[in-house]
From TrEMBL:
<dbReference type="InterPro" id="IPR051683">
    <property type="entry name" value="Enoyl-CoA_Hydratase/Isomerase"/>
</dbReference>
<dbReference type="InterPro" id="IPR014748">
    <property type="entry name" value="Enoyl-CoA_hydra_C"/>
</dbReference>
<dbReference type="GO" id="GO:0003824">
    <property type="term" value="F:catalytic activity"/>
</dbReference>
<dbReference type="InterPro" id="IPR001753">
    <property type="entry name" value="Enoyl-CoA_hydra/iso"/>
</dbReference>
<comment type="similarity">
    <text>Belongs to the enoyl-CoA hydratase/isomerase family.</text>
</comment>
<protein>
    <submittedName>
        <fullName>Enoyl-CoA hydratase</fullName>
    </submittedName>
</protein>
<dbReference type="Pfam" id="PF00378">
    <property type="entry name" value="ECH_1"/>
</dbReference>
<dbReference type="InterPro" id="IPR029045">
    <property type="entry name" value="ClpP/crotonase-like_dom_sf"/>
</dbReference>
Length: 248
């Protein structure tokens, strides 16, 4: 028992297990607690033959704001969570109706399919707080267009759902995300579970190669950058709602 309310809610309909990130006051930031709760929920999905697919969604106006700066997860735990999504023998579909920032984009890119409403916005904000999108690159770099990533990784600019589709971070976008997802979920329900698992393994093989090759180095890079003077200044400035000292 954790002695606290769970940060991931679970519901099921016709074989689709919905996991809802439920820490809206903290913008569903990836805290140690939220990462642990999501990992537990995914493990239960993997063991349950009644789960045909997983739908990952959120409460509030933000899918995930990235790492929780006041209760950050252990980098190894975050890497393990991202790999768990990629390796899960069920398709994982992201349903986004709000904003996605930094580490939240790593979570989004770990999913097999992702759809968002046109209200959603996206940004790799790491450089603006003095770090780099290191761990999230394990899922983002194999999925997305390199030229687009160069711009958004380096500048931290926001971009919209249409641009996220163009870059490969999203599968589809629309005014009504549920209307976009209805045929996707129907298709998964009509597909044989063993065939879905085998097909997912084909699609994720290159992503898992990236984990095998780069996870240790990127985790070490993340830890080093987060302990740097620039990161301390960037995170302090973020929490104080001011520009960091390097802004000119």
């Amino acid at each position: 028992m954790t002695g606290r309310d769970p940060l991931v809610r679970r519901t099921r309909a016709r074989g689709v297990q919905t996991l809802t990130l439920d820490a809206p006051a903290r913008r569903n930031a990836l805290s140690a607690a939220l990462v642990a709760d999501l990992a537990d929920a995914l493990a239960d999905c993997a063991r349950d033959p009644g789960v045909r697919a997983v739908l990952l969604t959120h409460t509030g106006t933000t899918f995930s704001a990235g790492a929780d700066l006041t209760d950050p997860p252990d980098p190894d735990a975050l890497v393990a969570l991202l790999r768990q999504i990629v390796e899960l023998p069920r398709p994982v579909v992201a349903r986004v109706t709000g904003h996605v920032r930094a580490g939240g984009l790593g979570l989004l890119a770990a999913c097999d399919l992702a759809a968002a409403s046109h209200r959603a916005t996206f940004a790799f904000t790491e450089t603006r707080i003095g770090v780099a999108p290191a761990v999230v690159s394990l899922t983002v770099l194999p999925r997305a267009d390199p030229r687009a990533l160069a711009r958004y990784y380096l500048t931290g600019e926001r971009f919209d759902a249409a641009e996220a589709v163009r870059t490969g971070l999203l599968t589809a976008a629309g005014d009504d995300v549920d209307a976009v997802l209805d045929p996707v979920l129907d298709g998964l329900r009509r597909s044989a579970p063993e065939a879905l698992a085998a097909t997912k393994r084909l699609l994720t093989a290159k992503v898992l190669e990236t984990f095998d090759r780069d996870a240790a180095d990127l985790t070490a890079l993340s830890a080093r950058l987060f302990s740097s003077p620039h990161a301390r200044e960037g995170m302090t400035a973020f929490l104080e709602r001011r520009d960091p000292a390097w802004v000119v």
